[in-house]
């Protein structure tokens, strides 16, 4: 009898431990913090880095090529994806990423996700594709790995599109399909990068995780990354690199402006400008910057001077 009681206690402990270690749908704040451990700034309650609104706004003016070049220089070679259809192709979108992963429907796994979602106090009345939307806050971008599926895998229509915009005041990047594009076009301020449209609804696809690492085409994306999306593609920037990427790219734009001006003036040849600058050209650039109006600088004069000093201009 004593042995039976001991066995029963051990069994209860094992079951309890299994429950504690059960795979969640939404990543814990601790896991997100571990994924983004190099970020040293403010965070949201869910653990995602809170990159400032000011940086997100400045990032809109950065070219994809400049962001791509900076990240390649830091060893991040798989952060770009192109080949999108865009709801408003003239638009530029930046924001903090909330990730979601979808897979082809498998009934037993889908049942587990629904039960686990209920334990996490998620809305079980509607479809699980609404769960990431409920988590969005202003400035977020909903990024979903729909593995390129279009038919029977459309992740949103106009109803969910309106909900996304109401929560985030932003848009989406979907490696998958959308439906009711006409309705999505009518949501003022909303934009989306997606693979194609289809009238079918979501029925052969299921949500499996929220705020976990995902793949978008050839890019690896983490929750809390910052996305820059425009007509030239999408690039996903690790949060701890955003600030330096922005100011480095802004200085590159100033260098280009200086170089174009000097070429028009025929001060230097194209070969001189398009290669490593001599000390004479570098000195000319620094003097040119001193006379540049502060009101037209994309950064503060203090930020600019600190960057130039750090990079030995």
Q: Which percent bin holds the helix content?
A: 40-55%
The CATH C-level class name of the largest domain? Alpha Beta
* The CATH topology of the largest domain: Glucose Oxidase, domain 1
Q: Outline, from the CA principal axes?
A: elongated
| Strand segment tally | 13
Spans where pLDDT lies below 50 across 5 or more residues? 6-20
Strand content: 15-25%
Structural class: alpha/beta
Instruction: Give the biggest sheet.
Output: 9 strands, mixed
CATH superfamily of the largest domain, called what? Answer: Ribonuclease E inhibitor RraA/RraA-like
What count of helical segments does DSSP give? Answer: 12
Based on the structure given, which CATH architecture of the largest domain is correct? 3-Layer(bba) Sandwich
Q: What does the oligomeric state look like here?
A: single chain
Domains, number:
2
Query: Strand-and-helix sequence, N→C?
Result: HHHHEEEHHEHEEHEEEEEEEHHHH
- Report the average pLDDT across residues: 93
Whole-number radius of gyration? 24 Å
Could you give the distance between the termini?
81 Å
Pfam families: RraA-like (PF03737)
Organism: Flagellimonas halotolerans
Protein name: RraA family protein
Keywords: Signal
